[in-house]
Amino acid sequence: GWLPNGVLAREIAMVLLTPRQILDQLVSFPTVSRESNLALVDWLEGYLSGQGVKCFRHWNEDRQKAALIGHAGPWIEGAVVLSGHSDVVPVDGQAWTSDPWVVVEREGRLYGRGTCDMKGYVALAVWALVEAERRGVARPLQLALSYDEELGCTGAPPMIETMQGVVPKGAVALIGEPSRMKVITGHKGGTGYNVHVKGYEVHSSLLPEGVSAVMEAARLISWVNDENAAIQSAPRGAVGGRFHPPFTTLHVGRIQGGTADNITAADCRFAVEMRCVPDDDVEARAGRFRAAAERLDAALKARRPEAGVHLERFFNVSALRPEVEGEAEALARALTGENAAGVVSYGTEAGQFQDAGYSAVVCGPGDIAQAHQPDEFLELSEFVAGQRFMERLLERLA
Hints:
The protein contains 10 helices and 15 strands. The chain is α/β, with parallel strands linked by helices. The strands form 4 sheets. A 6-stranded mixed sheet has the order 1-2-6-3-7-14, sandwiched between helices. The chain has a 4-stranded antiparallel sheet with strand order 10-11-9-12, with helices on one face. Helix 2 crosses helix 4 and helix 6 runs antiparallel to helix 7. The longest helix is centred in the last third of the chain and has 22 residues. It is elongated and about 80 Å long. The two termini are 32 Å apart.
């Protein structure tokens, strides 16, 4: 990186970094979700604190990860919150043409893991916080940098809860997921369950005396297919109709189970994910699936007490609902010059901020098509557009 990792705050207090230098440093930390992000948080907190930005942490349960909360400007409510995440997806098995942990500029693109999703935006947000503190602003600016976004947006809700007790309540949240600097006012929510169907092994010639976990799991998967058919034949909602596809979807992507062709399966495991349009009720949809699983569980236990169905919820992401005369949309449109706002089918932490009382939109540099890919890149023009966005924001905060 441009500066050595772990450099002390007093050593960097006199050094003012450009957005590109901050990006170089952030990418140099391999903050894959399965690993700790503390080296990045240590460095970033040192840099921000050295520039006068007030910083606070929210730790995860085993204190191997932390969210970083920053506040620049007057200690009053009403801040604009710049929201991003520190974690990135793995590079294992991907064919990279350059070191994924070093930003490489080629043909107008910045290559490196996380340049697009979403350390490019985080670098711009960090630069803007320092500038807000240096220049002086009338309205405060905050940073909310989460962990475990790539694991189902699980790190943001406890971070947002912590924010309410350590910094003055913000009003607007700008979530910088890659949108090519377009203003996004709605996205799908979702949830998912890991399903374990437990059977009872016998030789397949004695099928009625056993319970095949694979065959019984197929009943739940058939329920998913029937649910999709019912959803797609139902009338479209006013908000959901704007999405592609314009309805909620349920999906099973993998299944594993069984021991041999001539043995009733003792175990079968699969996952169900639900991506719900904002005018659908995620909890009601999830409740319908749980009820179907509970009915099957009871039926299997009636045959063999050892059999049954176990569910484990592995993510739960709130939808972002378009707001009527929302402050975040008005601000983002003014900063970008966009006259319209769109919706996307991927999920972000925006709905979680909205649930906590913030006006929220998604707007950030980069194309979501580049996220998670080998040779991930952020177009330099998008990075420059993101800095112009931050410059205009600073002018308004002043």
